[in-house]
Amino acid sequence: MSTAIPEQQPTAGILLREEPSGDPAADLDRGIELLREVAQGKRGPLLRIYRPAPTLAFGQRDTRAPGYEAAAQAGRDAGFAPLIRKAGGRAMAYHPGSWVIDHIQPEKDAMLTHQHRFEHFANLFVEVFTRLGVPSAVGELPGEYCPGEYSVHGIATGHGRFGRGRKVKLVGTAQRVVQGAWLFSSAVILEDTDPIAAVTESVYEAMGLELDPNTIGSVQDLVAESITHEHFIETLLEVWGEHGYTFDERG
């Protein structure tokens, strides 16, 4: 399957490797601020990456669920800051064992390729994981958190923490489009599954949403050899570059 976005031009931009500010809300809002700056022509294309503080990111739909307040409190009790993201999707938890990857680009008619970007970037993540030795595929798992047609899941090799063949969601994505630019945000769970599993189960139970706990996991659960954070980012930048997205780190 081709992963090329129709008429997508090669992109040269800036890599922003950031540290969490200590304020999860500010870290989440910064992606939207950068999107506005790109749309206004104040910045060019950029890739912002960081390891987040414990965050429980709710979608707009979640706030209308009868159990939302109880779910938000469950997040606080577990040490995860409950926040409402401006992009779509349902609740997802992430923490310093994860990476948030905000890919932001100017595009005149950004809405026209909105749906295709989900497929495009899902396939790029499959390439990343495959190169790291993690079997993976695109497709929604029954009962997964923050479900989506283009979810990326990994398949346990039987040599890691999970038994062979178990499928777990590895990437949660959301997208925000404004006039003249788009933000594609991905959260990748690399390690330390247990806190995420515990808070996710509590939150989904509070809101009465379907959840199969067996779909919760991390990259590190699926393979025998350790995959370092640096190796993951190096591989991601390598794959992005092969598909025309080159980002230079500055500052």
From TrEMBL:
The keyword Ligase applies. Keywords: Ligase. It comes from Pseudoglutamicibacter albus. Residues 32-238 form the BPL/LPL catalytic domain. The keyword Ligase applies. It holds the Pfam family LplA-B_cat. This is Lipoate-protein ligase A. Residues 1-23 are annotated as: Disordered. Residues 1-11 have a biased composition (Polar residues). Coiled coil: none annotated. InterPro entries: aa-tRNA-synth_II/BPL/LPL (IPR045864), BPL_LPL_catalytic (IPR004143). The lineage of its organism: Bacteria, Bacillati, Actinomycetota, Actinomycetes, Micrococcales. GO terms for molecular function: ligase activity.
